[in-house]
Amino acid sequence: MTRIHLYDTTLRDGTQAEDVAFTLEDKLRVAQQLDDCGIRYIEGGWPGSNPRDEEFFVAVRKLKLKRARVAAFGSTRRANVTAADDLNLRQLLKAETPVVTIVGKTWDLHVRDDLRISKQANLDVIADSVAYLKQRVDEVIFDAEHFFDGFRADNEYTLACLKAAADAGADVLVLCDTRGGSMPQQIRDGLQAAAGVGAKAFGIHCHNDCELAVANSLAAVEAGATQVQGTINGFGERCGNANLCSVIPNLQLKLGHECVSAEELKKLAAVSRIVYELANIEPYKRQAYVGDSAFAHKGGLHVAAVQKNSETYEHITPEAVGNRQRVLVSDLSGRSSVVYKAKQFGLDLDTADPAVKTVLDKVKQLENAGFQYEGAEASFELLMHEALHEKVRHFRLMAFRVSDEKNNESEAPLSEATVMIEGPDGRVEHTVAQGNGPLNALDRALRKALTPFFPQLEAMELLDYKVRVLGGGEGTEATVRVLIESGDKSGKWGTVGVSPNVIEASWQALVDSIEYKLYKDEKEASKAAPAEAGASLQAKT
Ligand SMILES: [Zn+2]
Prior knowledge:
By secondary structure, this protein is of the alpha/beta class. An eight-stranded parallel barrel has the order 1-2-3-4-5-6-7-8, surrounded by ten helices. Strands 11-12-13 form a three-stranded antiparallel beta sheet, covered by helices on one side. A three-stranded antiparallel beta sheet has the order 14-15-16. The protein is elongated, with a radius of gyration of 30 Å. The chain starts with a strand and ends with a helix. The structure holds zinc ion (ZN). The site of zinc ion has 5 residues, from loops.
């Protein structure tokens, strides 16, 4: 077992990815998260490349990180100035971080065609920059850019570059697969050859252009690297960096290395989600270990087996990385999925129970019609209770009408909805409301009709509304599926509606969403005060 130090560069390399940008506030939140889950180094940015990175280094000092060391990133000095006169190095020192990481050229092609200096001059640049920083900073990390490409082109020269950095006092030499084009064996070969330069420690920095960044990082650790650089969710230039959300559990749970504590590992899924959220990118469901689908079971046989013993189809306990097992409701699922779901909803069913078949038949029939309950668990829960002949409906629709009006081209259209319902005591409410769209008008009119009976509906909000056209029909005749996400202060829930008519589909999802709120509140109340709740439920029905 080796202690592996994790080096996160989400805030620097990660932000070089297409579509990823963080505000200063976001960067601080990410840093806090990384510290909480046991990351040893946090590369905060490139001071001098943009003002936001400079502000970050000032603000991060106030965060009081528990264990993580903050690193500033930059490049070696320019060829024609001394280290002391180099603006880049000066800005790195101004960041006042305990760690400075500098990247230097180690591929002769870059020295010749990009820097356009002699090979010796580049060795001087490396030695000089590292030595200068090492006198002024606690820890200096040298990133050997294009190490593996350079090694294949001119191994002697590439190793000479590493030796220059090691002799000048670099604490860690990080071998970079900057273009992401290397195979695992080439990574092993590179590390083995580098072992001779007399470094204190080696690190690895891989890019994912061959979908091998994680595998290559593991190969490097097997060959002796003790620092692994990467980003949360693999964010990074082009195809990204090594994904720490996979690297960490692989090293720790599969290879027996020590990266973070078991408690810190449990925060991984949450960190992954928060970083997606801050980057405003939809989380990748199928992401290994931390994705929503990583422990989701759909096939009936699988579901039956994981219920008996989750090891049958799960390679680790999902909770070890903060994830959870999910059983999907789908047309593939059998009796065991229904029983599993029922248990989640507090219903004790047995696979032999005739009610299970009733639910299953109903789900199959609805799924054929285009319903889908992944993302609409609240609708499914209501359906299940109804199939068991429980009363879950609190009101009855008598009629609705929705109209849209647009009087000239420059004016926004206006929607108006009229709703007539029968409340729980038989009273009829007839309301009208306007909205900035048909669903909005319908929602307002319905709430207006229902709040006299159920004042708690005021605390409920519609959070998201998605319309999806289903294949099958032709053009405007196609069936649509509407998914609505609603929430109140105690949680969120999803509901679904399907119809060739978008208003009708929206209505179904809207009604389910309101019914679910009422049902959920009753369930919570009965949990809080079991004796009283029974009485109040009776009074209502
Ligand atoms: Zn990189």
